[in-house]
Structure formats: structure tokens, C-alpha cells
Queue: 2 jobs
Job 1
Amino acid sequence: MALRYTFANQKGGVGKTTTVVNLAASMALWGFRTLVVDADPQCNATTSLGLDARALERSVYEVLVGGLPVRQAIVSTRWDGLDLLPSTPGLAGATVELNAEPAQERVGRLARVLAGVEGYDYVLVDSPPSLGVLTVNALVAAQGVVVPVQCEYLALEGLTQLTHTITLVQRALNPNLALRGVVMTMFDRRTTLANEVVSQVRKHFPKRVFESVIPRSVRLSEAPSYGEPGVVYAPRSQGAVAYLCLARELLVGDGHTVDWEPEPG
Ligand code: ATP
Ligand code: MG
């Protein structure tokens, strides 16, 4: 059975998609069969993996509201062991359509779809910057939630609301959901603020913040425009190495062995 993780933070631009895409690519690189589920109408995970969202005829949208068998919408990427259930801009319409459904059906759709997906070690779900019906579907469908947090002023703002939503989902819909961890992103070691933010967040979520901190990296931000994950586009860049370290930390935490070490220096 695949481990399913949802990456969520209703704050926009904190690094959810970048984290999903780079972790997934790292996992696939090391032989873990990985499926990325793009549950965001912005389709950033889809484009970051080199697909043209506007040219796709089958996507998570048709699966969620049109009853298309999920296998028919999953595509392989250019990288071995890395598949994608893509999104299209039309997914925005799913919000309206799903909200017209009865409550349980509305939020449990993705969980049902993913329960029928076989052949992966990991399923990583990217969610949009809101706590709406798509994000709740993504939380109901997962065993763990990973929360990327940007190292900036007011980083903790909004996290109370997110934690509350996670608790509600745990109580009412998905008792198996756990907070898998918080990832600090876009860290700038030159600023004292970034360091303060990291310690503040560590204090707020004791033992829940990953050791691996992702630095601000031009290479990571360039990679999507080439349709490649940063760990493929610039594997020796600081950002890529940080994501590889994070992937190893996550995998080891899940009981896997990873035979990879960052190069010294
Ligand atoms: P949204 O809420 O809109 O879905 P997001 O949380 O998924 O956003 P990303 O799209 O991953 O965030 O990142 C936002 C922007 O910041 C992107 O342009 C991305 O390339 C850039 N970015 C992400 N992580 C880093 C980093 N470590 N260093 C530099 N730029 C980064
Ligand atoms: Mg995103």
C-alpha cells in the first residue's frame, strides 16, 4: 500500500508545489514508485513536471466529477518511477460541482479515487492555497499532512487555522490523518529574521519540524520553467541538495533505507 501525503498550507506561494515536485523526483530517483496528484487548478505541479496542462484531455477533474477511471488519467513523466495525475484549469469548476454534493460525498471523493490506485510506494498530493473543498478532499485522502512554511515574518499566521482544519478532518472524516511534519522553505541564512522564524516554528511544533531546511535558491525557482524538478535540473545546487536531504529524512522516518549522502563541501 502506498503512503499518501498531502502538502497543505492555505497561504499562497510558500513552497507546496516545489516541495511536492522535488520530493517526488528524489523518491523516484531512489527507486520508490511515486505518484504526484495535482489537486490545484493552478496546475503548477503539472507544468513543473513538464506537461502542458491546457493540452490535457484527461485530468483529476474528470476523475473527481466525471467518474473517469483514475488509471485513464494518470500519465507517466519523463522520469522513471514518477507518474502524475495531472490538473487542468477546469478543476476550478470542481469546487462548485463538489459543493453541490451531499457532505460526505463532497469531501471523500479523492480518498475513494486514491484508494483504488495501486503500484506506488508514495502518493504525494499538491493542494491549492485555500482550505476549500479541494484541500479538504486532499486531507481526507491522506495518512499524513506535510506543511511547508516560508521563513518570513508572520510565518505562523494562519497555521492555527490550518491546524484546526486538520483536527476537524481527523475527528469527523479521517482519524488516520497525522501531521507528518513542517518544512521550512525559502530560508535565507543571511537574515536574523529567518533564523528567528525557524526557532519560533520549532517551538510551536515541537519535534514536528524537519531538520532539513530548504534555502532560497534561484535554481529551484528556475527549474519549473524548464519543466523539470530542481533535483533534476540542478542536482548539485544547494536547493536541490536540501530537497534530497529532506526526501531522505522523510523516507528514513518512514522506515526505509536510503543509500545517498550529500557530497562534502
Ligand atoms: P501556491 O500557494 O500558489 O500553490 P506554493 O505554495 O505551491 O504556491 P510554490 O509554487 O512552490 O509555492 O513556490 C512559490 C514561488 O516561489 C514559485 O515561483 C517557486 O518557484 C518559488 N520558490 C519555491 N521554493 C523556492 C526556494 N526554495 N527558493 C527560491 N524560490 C522558491
Ligand atoms: Mg502550488
Note: The chain is about 40% helix and 15% strand.
Job 2
Amino acid sequence: MKVAIFSTKSYDKEYLDNYNNEVHQLSYFETALNVDTASLALGFDAVCVFVSDKVDRKTIEILAKNGVKLIDLRCAGFNNVDLEAAKEYQIKVLRVPAYSPQSVAEHAVALILTLNRKTHKAYNRVRESNFSLENLMGFNLYGKTVGVIGTGKIGSAFSKIMLGFGCKVLAYDIFENAVLKEKGIEYKSLDEILAVADIISLHCPLTPDTHHLFNKMAFDKIKKGAMLINTSRGGLINTSDAIDALKHGQLGYLGIDVYEQEENLFFKDLSGSLIQDDLIERLISFHNVLITPHQGFFTHEALTQIALTTMKNFTDFENGLPLENEVK
Ligand code: NAD
């Protein structure tokens, strides 16, 4: 099958080529897929995309006209694909539903520990021969209350790690997970969690229901000085409201691996450019904000699983097999 791989980075090519074994004809494009680049897919059976590709209705129209029959996401989230339009144009959408949930869960923990114990600041200080402890004080995680929003694959893995730290874990989800309840995790309403949690970590998908779940109203309800961690999708947080909450000390710490307007920034080296996004610039200026560029998934184990599932998706589709990873 001929596949156009968009938003290619060196590691995508390395892992996909390694697990393809020259079965499929893979062509790599560094550019993201969007309405302006969709014509590159002319003559391909499938496109393979990632989180920063914009597969909206207009893009899908062009893909369909060019003969593309499959949109394969090499990620779990699919909020960047217009599923209605894909269905209308009879283009199948496949994804990688699970690829090491631990990679993202452990990254969420890394954000918590770094924000709390300020190891990033200590590292820089010590390199300058500054061995002072001023402003490096953190807090014990043991005994703290952690709120987990969304207890699917990643939220479950995260909850178990936090139990290991000796935290009290409260969860909010539209479905309760019986295994987590057996382990001592209590399901509560979102408002109950906001009121008591010292740390809140977001692990639900971005949907119309969860868009800006954390807005001014939610920030007004959180425990003053709480920490908010988002490794899920940027749109879960209203960034302007988060900035206001940080300015007033209502939000004590913010750790994000995802950002509402990340498609213009993340996965690119912009160190020689003037950043036009004033919201991210303001966030970067806070000492109690930690931003990582959507690297939660970025482990050897996760990239291996992504490549394996992506190849299986191509092969299943080409051979007319049941599409286990179809997004409907
Ligand atoms: P999942 O589908 O296993 O779990 C999502 C959970 O959210 C489910 O339990 C679901 O019931 C719950 N949920 C859905 N709507 C909800 C709502 N309105 N309120 C509360 N809970 C709700 O997904 P997952 O594999 O755990 O991934 C979670 C998210 O992590 C993905 O949607 C994706 O956006 C993000 N993600 C980020 C990275 C990264 O690199 N940072 C990598 C992979 C996934």
C-alpha cells in the first residue's frame, strides 16, 4: 500500500521503517497535513498523521478527490480529524488506541516532581556554582490528595503511581473503573475534587463536553494554591483563565505537556524566531509553570508500539481484515 506519512520527524522514519520491513511503500513528508498540503497525497492509498495535522472537512475533501481511502493516526487522540466528513467521503479512520499508557502517566509524574522539588532550577543553579536553597522548598507528596480527571488507560496508570507515593487518590470519570475502586481510589464529583485536591491531573479526551473544562469557574473552585497538570489535550484548559488564576495565586502551579495553540509551536525548533503567541510567552514567564512540548508519549517503548500498531493498521486495511483500531 502507498502511504504518505505527514509531520515526519527523524524518529518517526527510524521506527516506522524498522517495523515496515519494506512491506508498504512509505513516503515521508516533513510538512503537516492540512488544506494547503493535502494535494501532496495524490496517488497515495493512505495518509498517516499525528496530533499537529489538521484533518478538517476541506482537507478530507481534497484527500477523497485524490483517491485516499484511509487516514491512519499514529496517536491515540483523534480530535484533529473531522470524523463526520471522513464517513461522508467513505474514508476509514484508524488510530493507535494504546501504546504504553505508562509513558504519559510517568511524564505527568515527572511534571509534578519537577514543579514541586524544582530540580530544573537546582540543576541550573549548581552549574553556576550557586548552592543556595532559597526558593527551592517543595512539599511531601505523601499524604496529599490527588484528583484524577479521566481514569482510562493513562489515568489508571497515573492513579496507581500516585497511590505508591502514599497519596489519597480521588477520581472523576463518566464511567467508574472497578479495579481502581478496589485499590482504594474514590470516585467523586468534579466539584468535590476541585475543592479538596492538592494536585489535579487531566487524563480525559478533548470533546465538546471537556473543552475548557478548566475555565474561570473551575479555577474559582479549586483549593487555593493547587497544582494542575495537563498531559491530555491543550483545549481542556482555557489558557487566559489559567493565567489569571496564576496571577492571583489561586492556581499554585501549572505543568502542561499540551497547549491549546500548540500546532503553531510544538515539534519545531523556533529558537531563532520571534514567538507571536503572547499567551505561551506569558506562561513561560511564570516561575511556577513548567511546559514540555508534547513529549509524554516519547519513550522507546511507546514509539515501538506505535510503529507496530501502525503497520498492523496498514496491513489490516490493505487485506480487507476487520479493522480493530477503527475510530467510528
Ligand atoms: P482512554 O480512552 O483510555 O481514557 C479516557 C478516559 O476519559 C475514559 O475513562 C473516559 O470515560 C474518560 N472521559 C471521557 N469523557 C469524559 C468526561 N467528559 N469527563 C470525565 N472523564 C471523561 O484514553 P487514554 O489512553 O487514557 O488517553 C487519555 C488522553 O491522553 C487522550 O485523549 C489523549 O488526548 C492524551 N494523550 C496524550 C499524550 C501525550 O503525549 N501527552 C499521549 C497519548 C494520549
Note: Residues 76-77, 101, 104, 149-155, 172-175, 203-205, 207, 209-210, 231-233, 257-258, 294, 296-297 surround nicotinamide-adenine-dinucleotide (CB under 6 Å).
